[in-house]
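Folding Problem: From Residues to Backbone Shape
Fields: amino acid sequence; protein backbone structure tokens
RECORD BEGINS BELOW THIS LINE
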Amino acid sequence: MAEERIYTIPLRDVKENVPSSKRAAKAIRYIKKFVAKHMKNENVKLSESVNEKVWERGIKKIPSKVRVRVKTQEDGSVSVEMAE
């Protein structure tokens, strides 16, 4: 039963409420938290493409939103990759 969904995750809360020197790391944690909440599974694994997209312009200038494809794996984990 592999389930697949596409989400657009807004990162504006991270941009507004986090110091600029911690934004990219906080955005990664926020994406994991968002996916865990919506997929009802705490075992979330991000692909390198999501990590590279967030860190693309450095630690201070994260994207405003990220569009991701979320898949449920057979072993019970959830994988997240860029939806492109």
Notes: DSSP finds three helices and four strands in the chain. The CA atoms of residues 56 and 66 lie 12 Å apart. Residues 23-39 form the longest helix (17 residues). The chain has a mean pLDDT of 95.
